[in-house]
């Protein structure tokens, strides 16, 4: 059977109308609800003991709140101080840090695993809603004179300061369920295993969509073993030999015998492109920190902000109750609070 082209699949795909009352309410109330959800997430961060003499350090949970708030506001550390004063008056933090302290905490090594697990925790309220996922990667830059697309499509020399963000997201809500941040020249395919395995810890996987860059026997077999359909096209040089992967041969036959049905489901992969579009339009394509650790934490904070915004939309769209207590035990760097907290 002849495969349908990607253009035909795109033309025939379903169109989902926007729920404008829910969208408008989410936009109007976003900032107030954002602070509440962020505060709830940061409350799961344990306080590490102060070491050595000198001034006591601020609580890591509060500093994480300040760091993520700065990324959300897209303001300088000086200008965001006024917003943090409002957060203090609202009871979200006890003290407003000096603006230099906020910048220094971007370079805190312990912040990287914490932000990664907060991203995973922030996606957990949608675990009964999302079952199909899409994987892709895109670049974020601190070099204002260069563009990711110039490197990605034209082959221009890669300047320093580029980071590559590998994500897996739900195709309905665009919520990011896991993220890996690498330098700009890392290939996409090796990150697939971690993205899918981490997502499977908290979500039931029915299907994973990925482009040709993820086409490998190991990746196809991984999704198959987790009970999902690996919707990854085959390269024209691929053959149907299993070579130790029975899933590869089964999907190869289905791909060539039922191409129209394959592309009917595969087009959901475009939702990860929408996720990157949402992320970059709202929070910029550029990272403001100077060193790699600070840029990594800034990129993670940016994705956490995106997830919170997605949750706010689903609160209005689905009537979702945002509750993190039931999933917090899955993340070893976070602590379990004695009482459940529902926003």
From TrEMBL:
Residue spans crossing the bilayer: none
Protein name: Transposase IS4-like domain-containing protein
Domain of life: Archaea
Molecular function GO terms recorded: DNA binding; transposase activity
A biological-process GO annotation: DNA transposition
InterPro entries: Transposase_11 (IPR002559)
Domain Transposase IS4-like: 129-308
A Pfam family this chain is assigned to: DDE_Tnp_1
